[in-house]
User: Fold these one by one.
Assistant:
Number 1:
Amino acid sequence: MSEKFRFTVPGRPEYVSTIRLAVESVAASCGFDILEIDDIKTATGEACQLVSCHGMEGFAKEYTVECDVDPGKITVRVINDTKELLAKTNKRCLDCPNEGEIGKLLIRTLMDSVEVNCDNDQKIITMVKTKK
């Protein structure tokens, strides 16, 4: 039996830690071990940063994180399909494209399956972790 969790998050970077904790809690209650939970939590944080940051232009006003939990497996989707942006009030991330590539590599290393879909209208990162 599959269970689904859905979080809508303000795009500001300080909320990434909140989502990391929420996804950690979901993974822990599904029986993942501490190392798997840490992988899921870290990959989710990286995906949130990739999806919410729009470079010099600003952060997404909000984005969605979905967790589908099946026996032995969790699928985490981080989705931004809004064009509405929040202005950046602190240091601008001048190296976003370079940092984004490192984030994608980290996600691919930590998760069993990763799909990244980014076009002009929406960004979706889908990650799957299977219990060992």
Note: The first strand starts at residue 3 and ends at 10.
Number 2:
Amino acid sequence: MEVLKIATAGSVDDGKSTLIGRLLYDTKSLTSDKLEAIEKKSKQLGYDYLDFSLATDGLVAEREQGITIDVAHIYFSTANKSYIIADTPGHVEYTRNMVTGASTSQVAIVLIDARKGVIEQTNRHFFINNLLRIKTVIVAINKMDLVDFSEEKYNAIKADFEALMSKRDYQDQKITFIPVSALKGDNVVNKSDKTPWYKGETLLENLENIDNQDVFNVGTPRYPVQYVIRPKTDEFHDFRGYAGKVYGGELSVGDDVVILPSETKSKIKEILFYDKKVQTASRRSSVLITLKDDVNISRGDMIVRANDLPKREKEFTATISWMDSQNLKAGNKYIVQHGVNKVLAKVDRIHHKINPDYSGVDDTVEALAINDIATVSFKLNKPIFYDAFKDHRTNGSFILVDSKSNNTVGAGFIQ
């Protein structure tokens, strides 16, 4: 069954958690005990309706304040697909959490309060989706029940958002607008009779009809080796296989390949998926590959097609989302974890801080504080094999790790 990863984004009280709770409720994905707990808590709060945000706000502080702080991952399935939703906070001070939640998602749902329209945080959320190259964006104009399901209000917000779209640098996006009321359930799972002027799909219909092939950025295949398999049995005495996951494209039996960093050449002999041999390993499939030549390969090496080599450099420039309370400064040293490889890196230069509301850049900044987004250059103690993030989301991204605390302090997207 297909799995679709979705990130939500929206300002405080735009109704992200309520929308997800409504999806779970209307698809009958809530367990009976969870539903009973929601009913009980809603009554305790004095509501005459079910507060579906209680289905996702897991922290005590979230439930008490009625806001999202942490990134919650919610799982549900229909007959056609399985879904993983990253419910991310909308506050400015939790920008890093939104980057984390959206970094592995293929689809984004951006919520807008119909009473407020496009605001500064909307710019920020759309900027991050643009930065992370998310191809499919659903703009859910929520709380339509509070503006009497006004078509005029909906069209005005849509026009404002389309003006925002003109500022993006990533044009390969499909953007859909849907008027919804998460609280009442209008156009979430079921079509609403209160918006006869809206002829499009409901939110769930839109998600169900997304072709998974359309949400991935097409790239060249990259196969980082996770594990070398050498069975210690007589039957498989000479067997040598390389386990990993295919990113960006497809690999097939007979492909001429190069193993990095040794640059040894070989050819794919077999591709094994569980106990079956397959001709082609599709994008994002976890497989075992054997080669025609007995070559020296270790964990962290990368298998690529001979005519699709990545860059090999000891320095690069990247867009950084800074996530730590300790500032990033020129000269600081961190560990760059790129795939399964770890490389020591030094901050060479902070070029400028990027204002994620599309208001420009600040080239006078000398340090990055928590939640800042900036363009930064690094020098490495040994080369890595990478692609630009715009060409390959997996091989163009990395995390920064503090060598002393071992904390993840930043996420990077190579230019």
Note: Residues 222-305 form a domain with the Elongation Factor Tu (Ef-tu); domain 3 fold (CATH 2.40.30.10).
Number 3:
Amino acid sequence: MANLKETLQQKIPVWRDEIRSIVKEHGSTVISEVTIQQAYGGMRGVKGLVCDTSLVKPDAGLIIRGIPVLELTERLPEEIFFLLCTGELPDEAALKDLQTELKRRAEVPQYVWDMLETLPADSHPMMMFNMAVLSLEKQSVFRQKYDEGMSKTDYWEPTLEDALNLLAKIPALVTGIYRLRFNKGDRIAPNPDLDWAGNMAHMFGIDDPEGHFADLMRLYMVLHTDHEGGNVSAFSCHVIGSALSDAYYAVSGGLNGLAGPLHGLANQEVLRWIINLRKQYNGVPTAEEIVKFAWDTLNSGKVIPGYGHAVLRVTDPRYTAFHNFGKKVCPEAEMFQIVDVIFQNIPKVLQEHGKAKNPWPNVDAISGSLLYHFGLTEMIFYTVLFSASRAMGMLSQLLMSRAMGEPITRPKSVGTQWIKDFLAGQS
């Protein structure tokens, strides 16, 4: 198999021709209708985007380029990035080539560290990460090539360069910010013999004699890579990139969305709920105790964090992947046992409660607890890890947009008066 760039060079012309043919033959075909409720309600369910990298099916969960995510849990994040970009998994030679490229590009310029060290000591880690990504814009190959002048059909090539350059630096940025923000000591040098996520685990400096934390990092980075094109981070990145802003501007915008409490902070909310549960019952609760705690939460007007999903109507397969990992690696750990007893009882409570469309757990119901178990206890940092993984999805989607020559995103908006006049005309 060819390397990443060569594979894209072979596939992109075929994809372009296929899209041109679909638009030419079926461009006027209606694929969605919009209700007033959807217009006021965040466009939920409106089919108005094309995303070929991944799909979320209500009854099956995340599917990456046609492959259910549970079939990818033994893969490395580098393999998933190759899959997202090309639609196929790399062979051994292509994987090694990509890993070599990422290691070659991994050094973070000193000015980035100098900038981060000037920030207030209590700065939020997500702001620090976003500042670091944005500061790297100085090195954008796309901006340089665009300013020099190039054909629209070639936009994808410098976008790929930016994507690889940014992705390569993420492990050092994530761990460097962690050690700086939480006073963990000097940055740890990368190990050239390790893979992308394995190096990230190494540079955290967390004691990991059996390599289980490194395995968790690999799994975490795989499971959070992509989730269709309509979530806040992916859509924000897409809209910004559609203006031909380079990858650093676009990903930075996506990260700003990911920092919001309704998007990237869910696993923190779950973990706080679990810690309160553990504190109230001095350890792992019984089934009766968790049911009581759940009803107390619901009766106070709150939700059970980590249960339910905007799209899914089954247990999130990413939850299943993490749960399988926990059963294999740390079945006796208190945090995992609490998550397990919650899983055994909460769906029945929510079904009895009757208001939850989906009483099953999503990925956030367990991810934070596993991080906490392995010593990564600083909850405000968890969204940075989510961002490190999701950057792969954002970058691959941006690359596809450039390769397909997608235009600037510009939906039409109307006002409430227009809605009122429209309704009056219907009567």
Note: The chain has two domains: 77-264+380-403, 266-373.
Number 4:
Amino acid sequence: MLLIASEITIIMKHYLIFLCLFWGFILTQNSACQSRPPVNVVKTGLDILLEQNFEQFTGKRVGIICNHTACDKTGRHIVDLFHDSGKCQVTAIFGPEHGFRGLHADGRTILDETDPKTGAMIYSLYGKTKQPTTEMLENVDVLIYDIQDVGARFYTYITTMSLAMESAAKHGIPFFVIDRPNPIRGDLTEGPVLDMNFQSFVGPHPIPIRYGLTIGELAGWINGEVLSKDGIAADLTVIKIEGWKRSFWYDQTDLPWISPSPNMTTLETAIVYPGFCLLEGTNLSEGRGTDAPFLKFGAPWIDSRQYANALNALRLTGIRFKPINFTPVSIPNVAYKPKYENQLCGGVEIQITNRDELKSIVAMLIILEKTRDMYPEKFTIRSSLNRLYGSDKLGTTLSAGTTSVNTLTDNWQKDLDNFSNVSGKYYLYQ
């Protein structure tokens, strides 16, 4: 009997272990399913054009403003698709910042060249010439724009689109925008509306930093709210997305992520970018020259553990900070002489805990304020902060130290509401 009881005890122990492992597996699977966003079938404007066999461009001489992101779902590039269609002739190609192939680090000079496949001249619209000239458009009947955007005002592709659309309008050339999703949702706005006294290439129009529109919707807004006031009317056509909703994050679509620029390597980077790009206007490293730009930041004079504890104590919604040390280095075609090149920096790595609740611009303002208070002799701001923020209010507040940055965020909502009321007229999706 003792032997039998002992065997029963062992069996029961194994059974209980099995149950624990089984339920642990079930809970893990449920948790994974809950954290994994649902994937929806989405077709970009380029996928739609391909289905239509480019019929509306038959016999046209086509100019295309694009970069490496202008691909269909299978990875075929727009220039190749138009050229191989046999419907039209690609006569000019225009590249934005980072170039036609997206291989140039930010701010680097890009030279014109000839495309070996189509024979078309590739013109750079980043440098001395920022919009198509009369000579560039001489053999163009239709001008097409197709570049993946990230939904932030200071991402220079939207300025390139605006200037190109203006040029097309002045030359009587129809302008087509091949629409793509806003990767950080189309139903959320955040940040100050640009003060036009601080208009620049990284701040072309009075829109919030996070403007909540697709590139096609933004083109409609620019045409109706900016160009029209100057007596200009572009002949604008947007080739719409199918299957996309405003509440979608990019990973809720079945579209592959193609880094829109060398330092925009992940969706997580795009999520924090509207706020954390403001680091470029300070003497903190924004993580360029590392494996996670904008998801890491710091400086040689920062104690990483102390800094992470201080930032976590702020209890910022949707985000946590892990202490790290990193050394920025030059990376060919990605980071050219980044801040604190080859210097060991203390800092933090961002961990997004709730992207739906995260307000990256609000978070960054509070972070900059805390950094100023922790390192008053070291932390400084640069003149570029005004251009990025869209006014001198943030710089003045941080420099004076007499007013909380909360006063800035409190004043956003009225302008955001006004912008949303107007921009809603140009919505193409629900």
Note: The chain has two domains: 45-256, 267-391.
